[in-house]
Specification:
Number of strands: 0
Number of helices: 5
Distance between the termini: 43 Å
Oligomer: single chain
Strand content: under 5%
Helix content: 40-55%
Shape: elongated
Largest sheet: none
Length: about 140
């Protein structure tokens, strides 16, 4: 049975008609997939600070990622300050040193995992810009 041209539903079964243009239509972002991929790479360090999210216009999550990426540095500075100002004759560093040490590791690991996840999503072409458009063009 052939459908009438322009029909929205099948006259026999009532199923909605999907045209090829409807099925293949998706919005593609004008942003570069290569740029988003390189900026999200955690091994290039900028991915840890959310550079790729700033690039695609996701400012709020980029700022959050920037704070998460900077927090291990700040904790490392705190750890150094505690180590320098503590009593040099003490056998064990103060507890605050170990708190900063643990926070440095945990926050750094969290930033790395987030950047790695975004990197994998960008490489596979499933990363989206601020408008929700896929970034597919290399």
């Amino acid at each position: 049975m052939q459908l009438n041209e322009g029909a929205a539903f099948c006259s026999r079964c009532g199923a909605q008609v999907v045209t090829i243009a409807d099925d293949l239509s998706f919005d593609v972002s004008p942003k570069s997939r290569l740029a988003a991929t390189l900026l999200s790479c955690p091994w290039l360090v900028v991915g840890l600070f959310g550079a790729h999210r700033f690039y695609v216009g996701k400012i709020r999550t980029a700022a959050l990622m920037l704070l998460l990426g900077l927090s291990p540095i700040l904790c490392g500075v705190g750890m150094a300050v505690v180590a320098i100002t503590s009593v040099p004759d003490a056998e064990n560093p103060p507890v605050l040193f170990w708190v900063f040490y643990g926070l440095t590791f945990l926050l750094g690991f969290a930033a790395f995992i987030w950047a790695l996840a975004d990197f994998i999503i960008a490489v596979t072409g499933n990363f989206r810009d601020r408008q929700g458009k896929l970034i597919k063009r290399w």
